[in-house]
């Protein structure tokens, strides 16, 4: 019983440490280096932001399937405004506002109208994706239309000095991701708002009867998730210095996977932001390490899926043992 | 194939046992490591490039790692950074270089050469191996001129908003303008949002209605296959396929090939040599690995005119 409980609580963490150990042994020269880790955090930053936002709605036991297309839409909106000659700050602000509004629409559909989040956000997924196609005409916005400052943002960072003749910097994208994670941590762990979201996730009826304004909170939570998705979409657009109507679509499933991986580590199986961070790190480190080991990219996909199944199984088995 | 099997085994072993994976992962020291990174491995053309590239790589004994990011362009940057970190000897990409500048810059900082395989030109690439769009247009425009005896009315389908297609149209303009007895009746830009065939057909139907006399249209030159197919449908629907209107396309997509093979009005199209692009990319990598530099920013691989005689191949 004891062992099972430990496995349930720490199985994923032990797995993560094992993965790190394997890569460290297999890639002694390149894996556990400051440069590789700075690189990995930059590669993960967009997923980290979406997953942080996803944690907010998943704390209430809800889902948001539209984050990927909201991210694409935000990139396209910014791109279209760049073309129209608006200053970058304004275009970025408008794109974030679109994300917030898109999230709020999800919130209205789920909380005011009462559609299941799975169905409501599946519908808005298609709507936002369609909007991105309409605004862009299906084309990739790139080249001179994208202001240099916008494309350079993802390439720059805080210089950290030189190590072994290589200049290191803390990438801007990493800084943004850490800031978002910190904000979500404050929101979920340190405020009444966060506590109430977990109360809704625990027992929505009880939360409602004890005076929690369920509708308003749901709306706000979905709006924040939409905002974070838009932020990630802008980060993506900056990284590739272009905007494409489908570029965010890979983020949604990975974000949900990361939150699930994280959920296996918490006491009651509820999503916690710091656990989500570990989930994101697992996915990113696997991509980074397996690429360096020259493991076939399709095998990589199978491995990532298998590891999610393993982690969640360990959690489920542990739970059964408890009963 | 064998090396990809090895890689598969290596991957599975890794999942199971840490120590075994560590033992397998150490590659032979003298072997050159080359990473091929693309978001588009599922596209038929890309597969041809990659297979041809691997065939050369096998001969040369390179350790090739083919990485597919399933359409994710930002992931291409991430994977470039990973293989730069891993210290590969050369990288091949098949994606718009302007969108992965961050990755190319990290390769440049590490002095690792990057070759474009039908990627687009970029100062950060050692070279880009691709088909010559201008030469393809020249081939079909010249075919049209020859078939109609350098005399008659020609309808052009162009798309100047997309640079690779714009240069084709410009070359054809030049060739038709050089023949005094050829008149360009109309220069049409079809609406491509539906794929291009349907709107090209509608536009061609209008041209046919405006020029009802037999012989008033000698040829249709299209900058790619879709409008050629649309024009063919319009001509057949109008019952004017017997007038000897010559249609040409570019790209040799399967549907166009089929029509060319039938021996109807769509007489010719041009095939890009995807295998040749893969082989030439591998040769460029071989040069760079040998420490040579490549002076040309672009290496053109010859294309092939597809007519009734060779359309089935």
How would you describe this protein?
- The complex is a heterodimer of chains A (323) and B (313).
- Chain A has 323 residues and is mostly helical.
- Chain A contains 13 helices and 2 strands.
- Chain A has a single domain (2-322), classed as ABC transporter involved in vitamin B12 uptake, BtuC (Orthogonal Bundle), CATH 1.10.3470.
- In chain A, 75% of the residues lie in helices and 4% in strands.
- A two-stranded antiparallel sheet of chain A has the order 1-2.
- In chain A, strand 1 and strand 2 form a beta hairpin.
- The radius of gyration of chain A is 20 Å and the shape is globular.
- Chain A starts with a helix and ends with a helix.
- The mean pLDDT of chain A is 90.
- Chain B folds into 2 domains: 31-125 and 274-300, Rossmann fold (3-Layer(aba) Sandwich), CATH 3.40.50; 133-271, Response regulator (Rossmann fold, 3-Layer(aba) Sandwich), CATH 3.40.50.2300.
- Chain B has a 6-stranded parallel β-sheet with strand order 2-1-3-4-5-11, sandwiched between helices. In chain B, strands 7-6-8-9-10-12 form a 6-stranded mixed β-sheet, sandwiched between helices.
- The interface between A and B is large, with 49 and 46 residues.
């Amino acid at each position: 019983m004891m062992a099972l409980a430990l496995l349930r609580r720490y199985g994923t963490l032990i797995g993560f440490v094992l993965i790190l150990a394997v890569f460290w042994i297999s890639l002694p020269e390149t894996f556990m280096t400051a440069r590789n880790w700075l690189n990995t955090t930059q590669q993960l930053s967009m997923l980290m932001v979406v997953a942080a936002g996803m944690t907010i709605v998943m704390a209430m036991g809800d889902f948001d399937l539209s984050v990927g297309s909201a991210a694409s839409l935000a990139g396209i909106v910014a791109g279209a405004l760049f073309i129209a000659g608006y200053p970058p700050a304004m275009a970025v602000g408008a794109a974030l506002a679109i994300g917030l509004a898109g999230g709020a629409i999800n919130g209205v559909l789920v909380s005011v109208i009462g559609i299941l989040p799975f169905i409501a956000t599946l519908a808005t997924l298609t709507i936002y994706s369609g909007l991105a196609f309409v605004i862009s005409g299906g084309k990739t916005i790139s080249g001179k239309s994208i202001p240099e400052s916008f494309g350079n943002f993802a390439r720059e960072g805080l210089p950290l000095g030189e190590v072994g003749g290589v200049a290191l910097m803390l990438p801007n994208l990493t800084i943004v991701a850490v800031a978002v994670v910190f904000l979500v941590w404050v929101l979920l762990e340190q405020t009444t708002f966060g506590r109430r979201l977990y109360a809704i996730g625990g027992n929505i009826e009880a939360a409602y009867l004890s005076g929690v304004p369920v509708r308003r909170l749901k709306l706000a939570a979905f709006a924040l998730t939409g905002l974070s998705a838009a932020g990630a979409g802008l980060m993506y657009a900056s990284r590739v210095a272009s905007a494409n109507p489908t570029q965010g679509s890979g983020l949604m499933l990975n974000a949900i996977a990361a939150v699930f991986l994280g959920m296996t580590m918490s006491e009651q199986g509820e999503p916690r932001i710091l656990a989500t961070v570990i989930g994101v790190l697992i996915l990113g480190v696997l991509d980074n390490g397996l690429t360096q080991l020259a493991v076939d990219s399709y095998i990589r996909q199978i491995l990532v899926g298998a590891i999610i199944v393993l982690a969640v199984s360990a959690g489920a088995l542990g739970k059964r043992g408890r009963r | 194939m064998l090396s990809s099997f090895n890689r598969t085994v290596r991957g599975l072993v890794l999942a199971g046992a840490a120590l075994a994976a560590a033992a397998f992962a150490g590659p032979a020291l003298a072997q050159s490591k080359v990473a091929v990174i693309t978001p588009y491995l599922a596209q038929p053309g890309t597969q041809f490039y990659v297979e041809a590239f691997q065939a050369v790589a096998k001969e040369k004994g390179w350790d090739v790692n083919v990485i597919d990011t399933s359409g994710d362009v930002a992931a291409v940057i991430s994977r470039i950074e990973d293989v730069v970190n891993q210290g590969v000897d050369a990288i091949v990409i098949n994606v718009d270089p302007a969108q992965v500048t961050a990755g190319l810059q990290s390769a440049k900082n590490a002095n690792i050469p990057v070759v474009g395989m039908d990627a687009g030109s970029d100062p950060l690439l050692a070279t880009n191996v691709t088909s010559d769009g201008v030469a393809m247009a020249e081939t079909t425009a010249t075919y049209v001129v020859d078939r109609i005896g350098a005399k008659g009315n020609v309808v052009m389908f162009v798309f100047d908003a997309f640079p690779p297609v714009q240069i084709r149209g410009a070359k054809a303009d030049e060739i038709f303008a050089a023949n005094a007895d050829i008149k360009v009746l109309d220069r049409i830009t079809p609406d491509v949002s539906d794929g291009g065939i349907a709107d090209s057909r509608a536009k061609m139907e209008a041209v046919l209605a405006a020029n009802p006399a037999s012989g008033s249209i000698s040829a249709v030159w299209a900058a790619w296959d879709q409008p050629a197919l649309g024009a063919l449908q319009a001509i057949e629907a109008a019952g004017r396929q017997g007038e000897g209107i010559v249609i040409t396309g570019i790209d040799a997509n399967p549907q166009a090939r089929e029509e060319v093979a039938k021996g109807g009005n769509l007489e010719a199209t041009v095939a890009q040599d995807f295998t040749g692009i893969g082989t030439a990319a591998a040769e460029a990598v071989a040069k760079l690995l040998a420490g040579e530099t490549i002076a040309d920013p672009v290496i053109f691989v010859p294309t092939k005119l597809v007519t009734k005689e060779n359309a089935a191949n």
